[in-house]
Design brief:
Blueprint: H1 2-31, H2 41-44, H3 48-55, H4 59-70, E1 73-77, E2 80-83, H5 88-93, E3 100-101, H6 122-133, H7 138-143, H8 145-160, E4 166-168, H9 169-186, H10 192-195, H11 200-203, H12 205-218, H13 222-229, H14 233-255, H15 266-269, H16 280-311, H17 313-326, H18 335-339, H19 342-354, E5 364-365, E6 371-373, E7 376-378, E8 383-386, H20 388-392, H21 441-458, E9 459-463, H22 471-475, E10 479-480, E11 482-483, E12 489-494
Parallel strand pairs: 2-8
Antiparallel strand pairs: 1-2, 3-5, 4-12, 5-8, 6-7, 9-12, 10-11
Length: 497
């Protein structure tokens, strides 16, 4: 009887689990508050499909494919909606948006109990954002223009030393942008251009982003949250210390310098000790964000834009012609003069549309009681965000959305075509929208213009065979907040004048 009883008990439990699973699937598909929204059936029964896509670095492509099939508002998980709709910017990220910031996932995003400009809300966010914004005004950028130009010129010098031999241009883009930001913030570069190699912290950035993605998606599961909460504080302290060690050392070294002679902008962020400035904890918490945000995204964009130009040689030829005819000397390439290069700026805008540096909008949660987004009522506790990559490639808003066509950004009088007149270019917001948009937009554009113009003025570039014909790898490249570093091996032959 004992064996029979055990068999009956096991069978009953198995049937119960199966019925619970089937019932949950039926509820999620047909009776859940989000059941009215279209989406792949295999995805809406839970979070496993979107979790796997995120862990594989394919979240942007997963959402892109879903929007192409199901429309502008898609249910991509049982409790999550993805928006590739123009109104989504305002309704999810605008000043009047009735949604909540997603809470920090792991606790390692903070240093000394201080939140960053990314996670802070209310008055704390406003104060930090205003102080950070003072770093990136046009006046400040022009004041620091020699710093940026010096590093761009050093890049040219280092590339010239290869004398036409193969060079991993993508790595050198990273060396340049990180050295620029290190110099801007701390008064000294990270030394990557000089040493021709990554510092360990920069090399490991994508591993850190993968780890954060892992924690972020698993945080949606109650069991994981419970286990995470049980972790000893020593483990969290170790993770936090590892994340902040490099930039923390930079901050501490900087603060020990004489206030009268140090040149970096970190001291400026302290606001002279006033309430308007950042406190020490906030300085530490924001340091890695500032370095990463002003470096990795720009280098990624330079890499992808250069590749797109290689794959569209007519566009490359047109851009090279504009740059070389505009300047008789490299010294003439300046902040103001770059603003006047219409095709250069069109290429940059199209590159940002084609491969937005942050392909997934930051997550938000609908509060209790629900709200209306893009004309649809969305119930409380729903996760929402703009699918940036899918939105920028939407055929509703762009003609030939999957083609790289800088001309769409030009007026007809400047070489544009009337077929792009209906493009809703105003929705292409690669630096996001609203109070939490990127404060370093102007600096980002300056980095892109300056570095690309310097490289194309000085060198004839040729993409090497191992990267030629690599559209598939680029279109399917992984993304953990930013795109992974794709190889971009080229021959850079100096132009003889």
């Amino acid at each position: 009887m004992g064996l029979v009883d055990n068999y009956i008990t096991l069978t009953t439990c198995s049937v119960g689990i199966l019925l619970y699973f089937v019932g949950n699937v039926i509820y999620n598909i047909y009776f859940h508050p989000l059941s009215k929204f279209p989406g792949p059936k295999y995805a809406v029964v839970g979070r496993i499909p979107i979790t796997l896509a995120t862990l594989r670095g394919q979240r942007a492509q997963f959402r892109f494919n879903a929007h192409r099939k199901y429309g502008e508002i898609v249910r991509i998980a049982s409790n999550e909606l993805s928006f590739a709709h123009a109104q989504g910017w305002r309704d999810i990220y605008g000043t009047q948006a009735k949604v909540q910031m997603a809470k920090p996932v792991s606790g390692i995003e903070e240093q000394e109990g201080a939140q960053s400009v990314v996670t802070a809300e209310g008055d704390t966010h406003t104060r930090q954002k205003r102080m950070l914004a003072t770093m990136f005004t046009e006046k400040m950028l022009k004041e620091k223009e020699p710093l940026f130009i010096a590093h761009a010129d050093l890049l040219v010098k280092r590339l010239a030393a290869f004398e036409g031999r193969p060079v991993a241009l993508g790595d050198w883009y990273n060396f340049t942008t990180f050295d620029m930001m290190g110099d801007l913030l701390f008064g000294e570069p990270l030394g990557m251009l000089s040493n021709s190699e990554y510092v360990p912290w920069v090399r490991s950035i994508h591993d850190s982003l993968k780890a954060f993605a892992f924690i972020m998606v698993l945080n949606e599961y109650r069991l994981f949250r419970a286990l995470w909460a049980l972790l000893p504080s020593k483990i969290l302290d170790t993770l936090r210390e590892t994340h902040f060690r490099f930039t923390g050392q930079k901050v501490e070294h900087y603060l020990q310098l004489d206030e009268k002679t140090r040149s970096g902008m970190m001291g400026h962020l302290l606001g002279g000790g006033s309430r308007k400035g950042l406190n020490l904890g906030e300085l530490h918490t924001n340091a890695p964000i500032l370095i990463f945000g002003g470096s990795e995204t720009s280098a990624t964009q330079l890499r992808s834009l250069t590749f797109l130009l290689f794959k569209n040689p007519d566009k490359m030829g047109k851009l090279v012609s504009e740059i070389r005819s505009a300047y008789t000397s490299s010294d003439q390439i300046t902040y103001d003069s770059l603003l006047e290069q219409t095709y250069l700026n069109a290429c940059i805008e199209e590159g940002l549309r084609y491969y937005p540096p942050c392909s997934n909008g930051l997550p938000r949660t609908v509060p209790k009681g629900g709200t209306t987004i893009c004309g649809e009522f969305v119930p409380g506790s729903t996760n929402v965000s703009v699918a940036t990559y899918a939105l920028f490639r939407s055929p509703r808003y762009f003609y030939q959305p999957d083609s790289f066509v800088p001309e769409r950004w030009l007026r007809e009088s400047a070489g544009g075509s009337p077929v792009f007149a209906t493009d809703e270019k105003g929705i292409a917001l690669p630096f996001s929208y609203g109070p939490h948009n990127c404060p370093g937009k102007k600096m980002g554009y300056f980095e892109l213009r300056l570095i690309l113009a310097k490289v194309l003025w000085h060198f004839n570039l040729k993409l090497l065979p191992e990267d030629d014909g690599a559209e598939d790898s680029w279109d399917n490249m992984r993304n953990y907040q930013t795109w992974t570093r794709q190889p971009l091996k080229v021959l850079a032959k100096p132009v003889r004048r």
